[in-house]
Each structure stands twice: as C-alpha cells, then as structure tokens.
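Fig. S4 source data, part A: sequence.
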Amino acid sequence: MPTTATLEYGLLDKEVEDAPMREVVEPALAAPILAGNLTDHVEENAATHPAHTVFAKADGSAWAPVSAVEFRDQVRAVAKGLIADGIKAGDRVAIFSRTVYEWTVVDYAIWYAGAISVPIYETSSAEQVEWMMSDAKVVATFFETSRVVATFEDVAGNLPEMTNRYVFAEDALGALATRGHEIYDEVLEQRRTHAKLDDVATIIYTSGTTGRPKGCMLTHHNFMAECDNLIQILPEVFGTPEASTLLFLPLAHVFGRMIELAMFRGRVTIGHCPNPSALLKQLQSFKPSFLLAVPRVFEKVFNTAGTNAHKESSIKGKLFDRAASIAIAYSEATEFGKASPVLKAQHSLFDKLVYRKLRTAMGGRVTHAISGGASLGARLGHFYRGLGIVILEGYGMTETTAGATVNRPQSLKIGTVGRPVPGTSVRIADDGEVLLSGHHIFKGYWNNETATAELLSSDGWLHSGDIGELDADGFLRITGRKKEILVTAGGKNVAPAVLEDRLRAHPIISQCVVVGDALPYISALVTLDEDALPAILESHGIAATSIDQLINNPQVRALVQAAVNDANKAVSNSEAIKKFVILPHDLTIDNGYLTPKLSIKRHLITVDFAEQIASMYH
C-alpha cells in the first residue's frame, strides 16, 4: 500500500483509495469566465429576471421587496453620483458600516464607477482606521452613522487624501443619485466595463492575530469563479426559487461578502440584520431557508436553549438533554444507514417535543447552514443535523476568497471541512501544512511584496499556515495552526484548537486560550459566559455575586473543572489541561482580544496575561 496518493475526482485508482491523500485536485464545474467583471451579475439579473426579489429591506416589522431591476437602477444612480463627485477608475473607496442593505448597494456602485472597495469593520479602532485608509490611499468613505464618523474624526487630520464623506443615515445614497443626473449612461457604461477579470475588485484587510493588518487584493475573477462553482455544488442552498437568507455576519469579512455575492448571483433573496441582539426576532419575521454563521453562533444557540430549559424546570432540562443526545445519536446512525426502529421512534417523538420548537425559533424554514471561520466540532454538527438543519462546514481564508473547501449536502462528512471547491487543489506538505491553489487564490498583499512572497510560492501554491490531513475520499480535516502548535518542555506537540473548541462548547465557558509552550504542562485561561451565567448559577444553587468573587467560588470552579475534564477526553494525558485560571472579564472584539471573526489574538493575550499564566506554573 503506497503512503501517498493523489486524488482527482472521477479518476480514483482502486489501489490507493484507502491510502491517506497528499493532494486532491477538484476540476472546475462552472464554465470558464473569459471576460467581464462583477457588475455583469447586476445587469444579467435585471435583464433576465427583472421582477425577482433579490433583496428585502427591513421596514418596521415587515420586509419591503427590492426587485432585480430596482436594485440595478439604484446602483447605477449611486455610481453616477460617485463619478460626478470626481471618483476615478482605480480609486479606493471605503465602506465603514455594519451589515445593512446600503452596504451592498455601494459595494456594487463602487465597481460600477470603476473603483475598488475597501471594507472596514464597524468595530475598528481609530488607529486601525488610520492605517487601512492611509495604506490603501482611500479617497472617499461611506459611513453608516455619525457615530462611526466620530471614530474617523480622531485621525482625519492624518488622512488628507480622504476628501469625500457619505453617511447612510443622512440619505447619502439619495443625494448621490441626485448629483449623478448630469452623468450620461454612456459615461457610466465606460466606467462599468473598465475593470477586467484580473483587476482588483476589493482590498480586504485581514483582521490579523498579530501585527498590522495586510490588505488582500481580490480580483473580479476570484469572486466570479468562486460564485459560479459554489452555485454548481450547492443547489440546495443557492438553486431553489424560494431560497432566502438573513445576513448578520459582517460584510467587511470575506466570508459574509463572498456568500452574499454568490447568493446575489444565484438570485437568492437577501435580508440584512445589523443588530445581533435583534436576530431571533428578525429570523421569525424573515423566515430564511438557510443561514450563514460562525461556530460560536451555533454554540450559543445550543447552549442558550439548554440553559433556558434547565432554568424552567429540572424536568424540561432533562428533556432537552435527552433530546440533544438522541439528535446526535440519530445523525451518527443515519450517516451509516444504521438508525434502529427504536432510535427512529425516539427521534420522531423529540421532533414534536423539542426540535420543531428550535427550528421555529429560527424562522421555521431553515434546512441548511454554512459554517466557517473556525472549527464547528462533530458534536454540534450531528446535533443540528439531528435537529433537521444540515450545517455545511467549510474552510478558507481571506487570501483564498473565503471558501477553499466545503461540505455538500450530497457529500458530507461531519467533523471535516469538506472537499475542495471545484477549481481548487489541496496539498498536504511534508510538515503537515495545508497548501492551496486555484482560481480563488488572491493576487497578493497591497503594497507588500515581501509578505506576498512569504505566502505564495513561485509555482502558485498558497501556504495556509494551517495543519491538516486528507482522508481517502479527499475530505480535509484541520488539526491546528502551524505557528500555534505548542511544544511543551517535554517535547510534546499540542494543537490548542482541539481543547479550545471543546471547552467553548460548554455553556459556562465563553472563551479559552490554551498555553504551555516551552512549559512543563498544558494550562488554560478561561472566561465565563456572562449571558448564560445567571441561569447556571440558579440551577446549581449558587448565589449570584460579582464576577470577581465568582471566579474564585469553589462551586463555579468545579463547574469549569468539569468542562476541562470533558475537553481532556479528546487528547492524551500529556496533552491534557492540568491547571486553569478564570479571568475576571471576557475576551471580546471591543477590548481587542478577539478579531472581528472571533478568533483569539493569542500573542497579545499571552503577553497581557503573562502574570496569570506564570501563576499556573509555580
């Protein structure tokens, strides 16, 4: 039996079908794109399906439909206004906003004007805003509200090139449309068709866990080829006439942005939810057919449902726990076609008692979800599939235009991040690093050839920095970060993500950072989930008090220890967490310890909490 193999789908040699794969080549399914740019999708939708509802705008408790032709006309009007205001082809224009309908309008309008969009997270600090705008030489910015403008004002004096300000809340789009009346259609068409396939469509600054963000240059072809191939392999998500979704992830991140572009290409009806606290209410009014989220969202839904059930009564708590275990067992059994009649009957009963209520809370129509940005974990994947919602976990990075691999409804392995998206190749290097190539690989970092050369090899392979493995069917499993592998003083290699993902799945835990590099054993910094905490304290008869007192409470520490013990079941004794410290406050985007996609800034945390880490090794 050979130790390495290459798999090209449809050409699998029986001799190697059980061997570990070292490289998988997934041919493109969509027709090659020979010309054009992303604005063609707007024109095509308006021409072929003018009355189709491509967006739905929140209007109080209702949703106002926006047809393909209405959207095209608004985009064109705003683009004319930008041209009238002096925006030139190739100029960089920033979008500094939460996930709102206007974000998408101006994204396309910027492309219609021949310019390049630069998304900025609404939570970015003044220092980050200054760096991104100065590095990209931004000349105009769309702000959601005056509150966001205030962040820019702190550094405006250092950005003399940023001369045009537009505020959504002050009807900036209407004003632009009015000023654009003087621009002829012929002028707009020249601008719209100015950008070619390999021209830069957007510069997305990686949130980064260390150092200054780098601007990833993604081309029109990167997005267009990715859209067309995703639509080919996910017809259950993108290909049904009634398909719809409510976007609540930040459009400044490549994950939400890429999926929105694919949804628009596939004429999926899209709604926007800028306020996560209103998500459940809007899900029930919008009734999406699928969702897009990061694993932490799925964890919170699961943990909150369980915590609320236990808070209501011990009977309901036990009922939920049993329902969850049956959902997981049913999913695991059906994967191999081995669900017994008894298990099927139990699953049917809990569908009436529990699962249906959870689906109703998410609008009642959700059948699929796409998860990315971090590891989902097999337990959650099986729970949701048992619930009746298939989560399609994928993998990618900003530099790969989001998805490089993804699970598909007809080809799914829970616990993996799927097979390569068509047009993509995945290779496992000798040291375990995941290498990627294909139409989705970015053009490089803006103004940073050195960093580009460090990531992209001369033969076009991108070094992801992730450690992974391919199974005999070409499914990728990510096992850790190359730079985050901890090596204990005893020489044991430990991937922290395995323990961290497992710990965060427990209701009492919000965040976890595993440490132990060059130290005698593995330890962890953990934070408590303050949303779930009141119900947990009540259900365990623990008096509510301040966080400062709770972190030293023996009963609370016992609950955290139980979570640690469960996480340790996933690893060997030498990799297990031996000690932990509960931090007095959470790790969040606002305090700078999480990136906008909720990844921990490991280096910063280990520096700022060096004293707490040292206390575990005394």
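Fig. S4 source data, part B ends here. The chain has a mean pLDDT of 91.
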